[in-house]
Amino acid sequence: MQSRWALGHSGITGEKQGTTVKDEIEGVIFDLDGVLEFQGKAYPGAVELLVSLRRKRVPIRVLSNSTLKSRRLCTEKLNKKGFSIYEHEVVTASFATEAEIEDHLVKPFSDKYRRAQ
Q1: What does pTM read for this prediction?
Q2: Of 23, 26, 29, which Cα lies nearest the Cα of 9?
Q3: When comparing pLDDT for 6 and 104, which is higher?
Q4: In the prediction, which pLDDT does 14 show?
Q5: Pairwise CA distance, residues 47 & 93, whole Å
Q6: What CA dihedral angle connects 17, 20, 24 and 30, to 10 degrees?
Q7: Which residues have CB under 8 Å from 99's CB, separation 6+?
Q8: Do residues 21 and 60 touch, judged by C-beta distance below 8 A?
Q9: Which of 23, 54, 85, 112 is most enclosed, with most CB atoms within 10 A?
Q10: Superfamily covering domain 5-92
């Protein structure tokens, strides 16, 4: 099954006649550091791009590989820079790890986990 989520800046305009962006993709995933912002500043046009996607009702997700920043902190920092991001749209490395562990009920101290090693 092919993903219909665009990564970064690609796939944000309708290419087929009579279709909308929402018809072609299910959402856009942005990397936080180096795509939406760099060295603490929003990239020129990044805020406007997200506003445009929201107007088209395209779901947005923001990824961060940081293990030191919480989803809340990432959300607050982005919003202070002019973005309109909600905490549920931010996925950090620690949040993804926690979700994966919970989803698969991995219990590192259980006998099942030790046998799998």
Answers
A1: 0.68
A2: 29
A3: 104
A4: 43
A5: 23
A6: 130
A7: none
A8: no
A9: 85
A10: HAD superfamily/HAD-like (3.40.50.1000)
Distance, CA of 21 to CA of 77 (rounded, Å): 28
Chain mean position to CA 106 = 24
Place of tokens 């490395």: 93
Residue 19 corresponds to which tokens in the numbers above? 């279709």
Neighbouring C-beta atoms of residue 1, cutoff 10 Å = 3
- Contacts within 8 Å (CB) and 24+ apart, 52-59: 52/12, 53/12, 53/21, 53/28, 54/84, 56/20, 56/21, 56/22, 57/22, 58/12, 58/21, 58/22, 58/25, 58/27, 58/28, 59/26, 59/27, 59/28, 59/89
Domain boundaries, the chain: 5-92
Q: Would you place residue 36 in the very low, low, confident or very high pLDDT band (cuts 50, 70, 90)? A: very high
